[in-house]
Amino acid sequence: MRLGKEPKGIMASGFISTPPFLSKHWSGEDKLVNRVLIDFEVILNSNIEPLLSLEELNKGVLAKGNWTPQSYGVEISQEITAELESKWFSFLTTQDIRNNPFIQTDQETQKVYTEGSPNQVVVTKYERNPFARKTCIEHYGLSCVVCGFNFKNTYGNLGEDFIHVHHLNQVATIGKEYKIDPIKDLRPVCPNCHAMIHKKKEAYSIDEIKALLQ
């Protein structure tokens, strides 16, 4: 949420990518606070792009939400999350947004997948192209290329379509936008193998992790 000044509203969305951890307070005070890192899918520039406004958030079922909290880390009620996701998706796919990961096109230029577009948040994260992920999974399937684990085979419908995608070239170390080949550059891996791959700063190769399996 952007709340400091107009325009006010939702300006970003993504996924929590780490468990909570302690870090120094943003103000520089000598105290620790809980943090998480976030992989952002969308970050809107309020100077040139629309936000999902407070006016829209205060209509219908969404009006039950607390959209002007006085602190960060406020949980959204489960009662309205489905409606919020629907509203946000509808907003993103109907507005003029420069880098929209939810709109696919058949134009040839869209078939060149790019990644990068660094955004300054608590740390610099790099946007991931969801269509590159989709193409990788269509080619390799939904089983981990390291250990063979398949979520649907184990968890049934709950695990359907779930898998991590590993970048053979780490996006955060490239530091610029680059063209990505979903077949050459990406591999589907389960969260356990993905975590082991990144156990050191320079990630292990898939073959190195395979060699460790017993």
Quick rundown:
This protein is an alpha+beta fold.
What secondary-structure arrangement, pairings included, does this model have?
Elements lengths: L8 E2 L1 E5 L4 E4 L7 E4 L2 E6 L8 E2 H4 L23 H12 L20 E8 L3 E4 L2 H11 L10 H5 L8 E4 L3 H4 L3 E3 L1 H4 E4 L1 H7 L8 H7 L2
Antiparallel strand pairs: 1-6, 2-5, 3-4, 7-8, 7-10, 9-11
Explain the overall architecture.
- This protein is of the alpha+beta class and 214 residues long.
- The chain has two domains: 9-92, no CATH class; 108-212, no CATH class.
- Helix content is 25%, strand content 21%.
- It contains eight helices and eleven strands.
- The chain has a three-stranded antiparallel sheet.
- Residues 105-115 and 117-127 have low confidence and may be disordered.
User: How many domains comprise the coordinates?
Assistant: 2
Helix segment count? 8
Percent helix: 25-40%
What is the string of SSEs from the N terminus onward?
EEEEEEHHEEHHEHEHEHH
According to DSSP, the number of beta strands is 11
Strand fraction equals 15-25%
Question: Which terms summarize this structure?
Answer:
2 domains, about 210 residues, two-stranded antiparallel sheet, alpha+beta, three-stranded antiparallel sheet
